What we know:
Blueprint: H1 2-10, H2 15-31, H3 35-43, E1 52-54, E2 57-59, E3 63-65, H4 76-80, E4 86-92, E5 105-108, E6 113-116, H5 125-132, E7 140-144, H6 155-166, E8 172-176, H7 191-206, E9 214-218, H8 224-237, E10 241-244, E11 264-267, H9 271-284, E12 291-294, H10 300-309, E13 313-316, H11 318-323, H12 326-338
Amino acid sequence: xxxxxxxxxxxxxxxxxxxxxxxxxxxxxxxxxxxxxxxxxxxxxxxxxxxxxxxxxxxxxxxxxxxxxxxxxxxxxxxxxxxxxxxxxxxxxxxxxxxxxxxxxxxxxxxxxxxxxxxxxxxxxxxxxxxxxxxxxxxxxxxxxxxxxxxxxxxxxxxxxxxxxxxxxxxxxxxxxxxxxxxxxxxxxxxxxxxxxxxxxxxxxxxxxxxxxxxxxxxxxxxxxxxxxxxxxxxxxxxxxxxxxxxxxxxxxxxxxxxxxxxxxxxxxxxxxxxxxxxxxxxxxxxxxxxxxxxxxxxxxxxxxxxxxxxxxxxxxxxxxxxxxxxxxxxxxxxxxxx
Length: 339
């Protein structure tokens, strides 16, 4: 129904406007008594076999929603009714920021892809905290970044602010230094600044009565040498794991007219590369840390491929937009059928 009737209508309009419209629609429908339970009955697959314990957390199933969809933690409860095992909010920054000028979100229909150059648009971490205080049972990841105007040499303090503000309200953290849409942000992936950033957050973490997992989200554009450095950094800082991968700057093999738009590319063109990164990290590290696989998951088989490559969990974003919420159910049912 989604792909035949709903998606063709939504895809006639500007993608950022559609995002806000569907947010409002999902919120309104969930306020109608019984609708939340109806969504759960349609999309949720409940089975103890789907449960996963990863970095000390218990996930009811291994399929999550990637960061960027619910940046400001405005819809995490309603989105969880579609059967997600966990929701990642953000990327959040210390201060509110509008992000890059519009138009900044583009569908590449022929490629089943999206290019975005949003630029960490969000209402600020403290605004999200107020909504997260109302959470009742949704497993939440907090994706954190730096404000655009914060120079790289001061970036660590931005991540510290977000870490401290979110700590009581999220189950795990994701350090985002791999978005291509904040100037010079990816320079923080270099070994020295990245080790310093992660170690600083780990030191804060170790001061807490109970620590929370810290993960690093990496770009798919890293070389094998850089990926080996990432493995070393994980080992040195003892962070909990990796999210592989963020969007790519590559435009190889694209067919759509608007393929030259600036920004990060997500969707089907990323399927193989993100799986390659997962497999490389898993094999070269001897599976010494968990990996959340994300990038180009449009079918249940895509998800299984990432799990087989070494991912412990997977996340959807562009596939959720193109394929609809039924994809979550299809993946979970495929996992059960493979057991």
